[in-house]
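Hi support team,

I'm opening this ticket because the web form for multi-chain structure prediction keeps timing out on my end. I have pasted the exact lines I submitted so you can reproduce it. The total is 420 residues across two entries, so I didn't expect it to be a heavy job. Is there a limit I'm missing, or should I split the entries? Thanks in advance, R.K.
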Amino acid sequence: MNKKLVEMSILEFLDELGSDSPAPGGGSVAALSGALAAALGEMVCNLTIGKEKYADVEDEIKNILRDCKKIREELIKLVDKDTQAFNEVMKAFKLPKENEEQIEIRRKAIQDAFKNAALVPFETAKKSFEVLKLAKIIAEKGNKNSITDSGVSALLACSAVKAAIYNVRIYLSSIKDEHFVNDLNSQIKKLEEECETLYRETEEIVEKYL
Amino acid sequence: MNKKLVEMSILEFLDELGSDSPAPGGGSVAALSGALAAALGEMVCNLTIGKEKYADVEDEIKNILRDCKKIREELIKLVDKDTQAFNEVMKAFKLPKENEEQIEIRRKAIQDAFKNAALVPFETAKKSFEVLKLAKIIAEKGNKNSITDSGVSALLACSAVKAAIYNVRIYLSSIKDEHFVNDLNSQIKKLEEECETLYRETEEIVEKYL
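Hello R.K., no limit was hit. The queue was backed up. Here is the completed structure from your submission:
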């Protein structure tokens, strides 16, 4: 098995990303952006816990820290999962198509691979939205010396949601199952709107302290 | 000397980021986000060069690829530089303050460290804005099979600009030199507005292909 993307050094990952291979691409970067947002949220939680000034919110912040860590782990898995799902699509396209039966098998494999590939960034979008929700509470209740870190966490979580949704949409454009497409389309539309609102609200909190 | 942040694996960097140490923080993440955006732009350039369909724009895309690479290198340096600049501020605060002379030396050292620390994310914001400009041209003229990657590049470049500006502003709030503060404030305000416009324009291009 190849080295996992997240085990690469940042320099190696950037080289791999910039190369002429289409994967890793925007989907993996979306998940990484969400993971960076979660880790920044954890940092602010860690800089809040144990401070007398924030004793009132300590228990809540401890819970948020635990949630951020959990979601960070999930997003880390999605960095590699996104690239694997893309590679599965490419593999399906390479199936033989020499007779009717092969053509039908290939057609179905491609459609299945596209559906699976769309669900991976959808998962990234949902998890990154969770990070954004936590970033807002961290900005509200966490250490104000780190308010810009809470703000950057919200920014990157919001970008991760939007970036992941771009990737869902591009896969949806190749999927024939209308029910699947309509269902996912309405879910990502809702997610994108909620993300925009939540980000603006968090931005307002951060602006108060700048 | 410690290991450079960018030589860490992604997993190590995320652990370091999430720890209870305030550096690396949002400033380094801003620079990393800009570097990820540049690398994604490079990928789309690499997937455009050599394709017959894009022969007309090949020379222009080759130039953009070269520019993206150069800016990526600069942003990579800013990941570590941001954390170092923050640590210099912390060091200045630890200078002795036992007599008038020491207090004055310390006061000046802190102000100098703050100014230097504000200029680092300002550099990150400017470089990331350059990436956004390139991402727009890549979305317009580059390989349309990678349109979402161009979109994610623009998203992350825009977030990098905004995240870096948060960090400039928090340092500016501690700087007494009014001329320095006013000058930087007006420059980042302009940059933020231009970034917002350019991102919307790029988003419109991407939306046409989704």
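A quick check on our side: Chain B has six helices and no strands. Let us know if the file doesn't open in your viewer.
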